[in-house]
Amino acid sequence: MVRDREQTTRQVQQLLEKDRTCPNEACPDFGKTKTGNIIKYGHTDGGRQRYLCRTCGKTFTATRR
């Protein structure tokens, strides 16, 4: 039961990551989704997931919508 919940959580996170966009307005991929340019890039000291845009090199954390 716990394993199923963990797998479902991972699947949801993967789907959400595909919709992430670069927040840098100067980036050629700004506002574009599903380009594969956003990757996980460690965690902050507070434990929040960090992301990296492979196009422009900007790092950022996700914010709740």
Structure description:
The protein is of the alpha+beta class. It has one domain. 26% of the residues lie in helices and 22% in strands. It is built from one helix and three strands; from the N terminus they run H-E-E-E. The protein has one helix spanning 2-18, and strands spanning 38-43, 49-53, 59-61. Strands 1-2-3 form a three-stranded antiparallel β-sheet, with no helix packed on it. Strand 1 (38-43) and strand 2 form a beta hairpin. It is globular and about 45 Å long. The model has no long low-confidence stretch (mean pLDDT 79).
Estimated structural class: alpha+beta
Number of helices: 1
Shape: globular
Write down the overall mean pLDDT.
Answer: 79
The strands making up the biggest β-sheet line up spatially as 1-2-3
- Our Rg estimate from Cα atoms comes to 13 Å
State which percent range the strand residues make up: 15-25%
Number of domains: 1
Please mark out the parts with pLDDT under 50 across 5 or more consecutive residues, or reply none. none
Major sheet summary line: 3 strands, antiparallel
| SSE string | HEEE
User: What is the terminal-to-terminal distance?
Assistant: 29 Å
Helical content (DSSP H or I, runs of 4+): 25-40%
Number of strands: 3
